[in-house]
TrEMBL record, chain A:
One of its GO terms (molecular function) is ATP hydrolysis activity. Residues 8-256 form the ABC transporter domain. It is a peripheral membrane protein. The keyword ATP-binding applies. This is Peptide/nickel transport system ATP-binding protein. The keyword Cell membrane applies.
Automatic annotation (TrEMBL), chain B:
Its main location: membrane. Signal peptide: none annotated. This is Peptide/nickel transport system ATP-binding protein. CDD domains: ABC_NikE_OppD_transporters. It is found in: Cell inner membrane. It comes from Salipiger marinus. Keywords: ATP-binding, Nucleotide-binding, Transport. InterPro entries: AAA+_ATPase (IPR003593), ABC_transp_ATP-bind (IPR050319), ABC_transporter-like_ATP-bd (IPR003439), ABC_transporter-like_CS (IPR017871), Oligopep_ABC_C (IPR013563), P-loop_NTPase (IPR027417). Transmembrane segments: none annotated.
Length: 322, 327
């Protein structure tokens, strides 16, 4: 069996509106292997969350997958009906969102929520499910599990809640975890604890992870490969070390240059002029061309695309923009 | 007004407590005591004219409370704030540029407001010209004055906030997480703008952020806070070259470093305790790898070492004279 867990081909997500169809995700192809963390970065509105939601089958109508395919370990999962999708969510794909409270029920003790989820997916007896819940809480780093298992979510700190959400996502030993900004609401010291946890789970259980974040530092230290998104499109895809050290897409290098350094003194941060276009005003050709210092005539005419590691940029692909 | 030693702001033993008790009736029925939260617990620092002092620390450590004390939005529970400048020329920039702009006013009116307050009898054509100037200064166009805040992106809204703050002809700006809501590329535009304005107008900033790389880029002096106190204060270059307090050192070891990514970084253990019932002694002791008996009972005061760096930690003192051991 191939070890590709997630296989996305030419994915397109659209929102039909009165003023026309908005394309939030445009022709994205990527794969994640067993035990691999793929980081997805980009500025707000780049289409990161919509990609995650499409995988989870959680796009809010009228949003819809308009083209392409999504396979999970060989099984096609886009276009399934709600019941089939619900069965896959939780059992084969775990989800972790920015705000842990959206995934937790405030009225139930965390232990009971874990037990219910475990029983739903495994059919274990109540007592065996409780033992498993304790193991999971221990595994995600909750101290004094015996004392905490009967607490309510509001009695936990933000970092502890996010650990419980990760434990919930792990209940059925899913093949894939989609984590959308899982550390964004947390303090730096807690953020590092959560990313270390994700890395360990990947290594030990072979889970594949799509880690969506706008934080390049988190990606650099957590992901194996990275997908850089811009205006709903894949700008660059490749091993994280290469992209952090030698970005090939002008947008990626601009992004890297705009981040203040912890080591070097600079008077001025590098700036990318302008801002990301709105979905109803994406320029023809390369979506980055109005902000790009290298843009040439071809960039305004034809859209560069990638479906394997590389940069979606005429300069990088063909060495010229004429 | 005296301008002693170039200091524009001196904060001395500043305290702010909040009453976070349950409602009176619950206390009575359930026999619960009054509870006090020490949001700011004996803080001192000085800011020199034309410089930037940054407060950095994790959520809830008291940064915004200090900003509100300095700008007079909160009254201190103890200590003193001495401002050697013109109170009317102190302005504040907030984290959420949308919440702080009146959605029903056009941008020109928003920007003109502090000017009209400062000099009520400015003739209208002069106000208009000045607003146009200010919009240009922050990289917007004078025609943007006719638009409403919702017509702008997050970064542009933060520029509008800055233009409004500048309209009050400030000498001192309190900036509370001015770029935390912005994407990094937009953050770069705003930070560059703030630095340019400081150079050109000699502004002084009290700059608040939880992001150490932003603070490193912006500040001359950095004060690191933990649970309502400043645990360490040093000139920026020194803080990064030789962090003294165990918390600062763990913090610097914990944050991801784009230029030297470390995938096996060991995260700092534990969490920030509740400020309602902080641990006794040094409040960092439950997370501190260097903690010893004294730390659990006695509270370290911030002392200057031989190099005049100041840190509140017993492990950084030599027993004899209280000077920092080279750790
Ligand atoms: N009006 C208030 N009443 C009660 N407690 C308050 C009040 N304002 C602040 N606090 C508490 O004081 C402490 C310090 O809060 P503050 O807003 O200054 O933190 P901060 O450092 O700015 O955090 P953040 O990084 O999350 O903005 C927190 O524990 C907070 O809950
Ligand atoms: N219900 C919706 N209707 C129209 N556009 C939407 C809707 N939800 C999201 N979008 C748009 O899709 C784009 C991508 O959004 P998202 O994936 O959430 O971005 P991010 O990269 O910040 O996670 C944005 O331009 C957003 O405004
Ligand atoms: S394709 Fe052209 S406009 Fe787009 S990033 Fe490359 S050089 Fe710039
Ligand atoms: S005083 Fe003690 S507990 Fe506090 S930081 Fe120093 S060594 Fe650690
Ligand atoms: Mg998102
Ligand atoms: Mg704050």
């Amino acid at each position: 069996m191939s070890d590709i867990v997630l296989d996305i081909r030419n994915l397109r997500v659209e929102f039909p509106t009165r003023k026309g169809v908005l394309t939030a995700v445009d022709d994205i192809s990527l794969q994640i292997r067993r035990g691999e963390i793929l980081g997805m970065v980009g500025e707000s509105g780049a289409g990161k969350s919509m990609t995650g939601m499409a995988i989870l089958g959680l796009l809010e109508p009228p949003g819809r997958i308009a083209a392409g395919s999504i396979h999970l370990s060989g099984d096609r999962i886009d276009g399934l009906d709600d019941r089939a999708l619900q069965a896959i969510r939780g059992r084969r794909i775990g989800a972790v969102f920015q705000d842990p409270l959206t995934s937790l029920n405030p009225l139930f003790r965390v232990g009971d929520q874990l037990v219910e989820t475990i029983r739903l997916h495994t059919g274990l007896s109540r007592s065996r499910a409780r033992a498993r819940a304790k193991d999971l809480m221990h595994e995600v780093g909750i101290p004094a599990v015996e004392e905490r298992i009967d607490s309510y979510p509001h009695q936990f700190s933000g970092g502890m809640r996010q650990r419980i959400v990760i434990a919930l996502a792990l209940c059925a030993e899913p093949e894939l975890i989609v984590a959308d900004e899982p550390t964004t609401a947390l303090d730096v010291s807690i953020q590092a604890q959560i990313t270390a946890l994700l890395r360990r789970l990947c290594r030990e259980r072979g889970t594949a992870v799509l880690l969506v974040t706008h934080d390049m530092g988190v990606i650099a230290e957590t992901a194996d490969r990275v997908a850089v998104m811009y205006a709903g499109r894949l700008a660059e895809l490749g091993p994280v070390d290469e992209i952090v050290r030698r970005p090939n897409h002008p947008y990626t290098s601009g992004l890297m240059g705009s981040i203040p350094s912890l080591r070097k003194d600079v008077d001025e941060l590098q700036m990318i002029p302008g801002s990301m276009p709105r979905l109803d005003a994406i320029p023809p050709g390369c979506a980055f061309n109005p902000r790009c210092t290298h843009a040439g005539p071809r960039c305004r005419r034809e859209t560069p695309r990638i479906d394997s590691p590389g940069a979606a940029c005429w300069l990088a692909l063909e060495g010229e923009v004429a | 007004m005296t301008q002693r030693s170039g200091a524009i702001l001196e904060v001395d033993a500043l305290e702010r407590r909040f009453d976070v008790s349950a409602p009176w009736l619950n206390r009575l029925l359930e026999g619960r005591p009054r509870r006090t939260l020490r949001a700011v617990d004996g803080v001192d620092f000085t800011i020199q004219r034309g410089q930037t002092l940054a407060l950095v620390g994790e959520s809830g450590c008291g940064k915004s409370t200090i900003a509100k004390l300095v700008t007079g939005l909160h009254a201190p529970s103890g200590g003193a704030i001495r401002f050697h400048g013109d109170r009317d020329r102190m302005q504040m920039i907030f984290q959420d540029p949308f919440a702080s702009l009146n959605p029903r006013w056009r941008v020109a009116r928003i920007v003109a407001e502090p000017l009209r307050t400062l000099r009520p009898d400015t003739p209208e054509p002069e106000v208009t010209a000045r607003v146009a100037d200010l919009l240009r200064t922050v990289g917007l166009s004078p025609t943007d004055g006719t638009k409403f805040p919702h017509e702008f992106s997050g970064g542009q809204r933060q520029r509008i906030s800055i233009a409004r703050a500048l309209a009050g002809e400030p000498e001192f700006l309190v900036c509370d997480e001015p770029t935390s809501a912005l994407d990094v590329s937009v953050q770069a535009q705003v930070l560059n703008l703030m630095k340019r304005l400081q150079r050109e107008m000699g502004l002084t900033y009290l700059f608040i952020s939880h992001d150490l790389s932003v603070v490193r880029h912006m500040a001359d002096v950095i004060a690191v806070m933990y649970l309502g106190r400043i645990v360490e204060i040093q000139p920026t270059a020194d803080l990064f070259a030789a962090p003294l307090h165990p918390y600062t050192r763990l913090l610097l070891d914990t944050i991801p470093d784009l230029e030297a990514p470390d995938r096996n970084r060991i995260p700092m253990g534990g969490e920030v305790p509740s400020p309602v019932s902080p641990p006794p002694g040094c409040s960092f002791h439950p997370r501190c790898p260097l903690a010893f008996d004294r730390c659990r009972t006695e509270r370290p005061e911030r002392r200057a070492d031989v190099h005049d760096r100041r840190v509140a930690c017993f492990a950084c003192e030599t027993p004899a004279d209280g000077a920092a051991a080279d750790v």
